[in-house]
Amino acid sequence: MRTIRRLVWCLGIFGLLAGPAWAGTEPIQFGGWGGISPGARYFAVADMNDYFESVNVDSLPPVWPVIGAQANGLLFEWLVVGGRGAWMKQSLNGGLSDVTLTVASGEMDVGYAVLNGRYGLAYPYVGLGGGASTLRFEQDGYAVRAFTEVDRRAAATASEPQDDLVYRKDVMIGSLGFTYLWPVRFVESETHGGFGAFLPGVTLGAQAQLLETGWRKDGKLARGGPDWSLTGAFLQLEINFGGGTVKRPAPEH
After folding, report:
1. What's the angle, vertex CA 236, arms to CA 195 and CA 188, rounded to 5?
2. Element (H, E) at 233
């Protein structure tokens, strides 16, 4: 979280210093940008923590650090299309087995630019995609680390340390978000309207889990696992580079 605060300060100072570079510029007609988006994401973790408590494992925090990446394009001054992905990880200590929970997601987005010009670029968007949660119990754990009766008996009777137990849940997700970018243009062409740009900003939104497969081990459904959903809210910084064109009158001959 300290790193995120430093990034916020750096982006704010840069934006204040670079204001004259974009103030009063024409709307972007066509453009593209991509980059990374560190931030934080909130999850409802009560049900998962109830399970972890029953197997003597540390609790999950409700707010997770997240690192994301995105690529977007702007068409006809208002249509924003693109995609984004996110990755998160929590490692927990347990009396019988350490646990790692990893979440990865990706989606396609469509948005509408409500601001495009001297006050920046801003657009709400909707997204649809998928995600996967992987729950890994490290080797040398005991029977309580497993979901199913078959796995519990196998762990209890094993004479040698077993391989890690890995469970996976795949889901379909939908999201609603709002992105504000501060395009700082450079290397502009006075005649053709082309430019490069640094686009810092911020994205705020919410994600909902639409469909799920349930926890699976080796491709087979593992009944008895904890309830876990990717539904939650997120706040991420945007650090992008790109370029585009603005509409310019044809040069006089």
Report:
1. 5
2. strand 232-246
- Token pair recorded at residue 100: 């790692």
Residue with tokens 């996110």: 86
* Helix, strand or coil, per DSSP, at residue 141: coil
Please state, in angstroms and rounded to a whole number, the distance separating the CA atoms of residues 226 and 142. 18
pLDDT, position 96: 65
E strand or H helix at 50: helix 46-54
Q: How does DSSP assign 211-227, residue by residue?
A: EE---EETTEE-TTPPP
CA-to-CA separations, 175 to 121, 166, 227, in angstroms, rounded: 20, 28, 21
For residue 132, what are its two tokens? 């996967």
Distance, in Å, from the CA atom of 232 to the CA atom of 229, rounded to the nearest integer, reads 8
Please tell me which of 20-24, 64-68, 181-185, 218-222 the model is most confident about, judged by mean pLDDT: 64-68
> Cα(64)–Cα(47) distance, rounded to whole angstroms?
16
DSSP E strands, 113-215: 115-117, 120-137, 165-181, 184-186, 194-212
What integer is the mean pLDDT of 214-229? 81
Length of the chain: 253
Q: What is the pLDDT of residues 157-209, one digit of tens each?
A: 555 555 677 889 999 999 999 999 998 888 766 666 678 889 999 999 999 99
- Residue 126 tokens read as 């909707």
CB within 8 Å of 179: residues ≥ 6 apart:
111, 122, 123, 125, 201, 202, 203, 238
Tokens of 98: 């350490």
**By the 8 A CB rule, do 58 and 52 touch?**
yes
Instruction: Please tell me the distance from the alpha carbon of residue 154 to that of residue 137, in angstroms, as a whole number.
Output: 14
Q: Please report the pLDDT score of residue 236 as a whole number.
A: 95
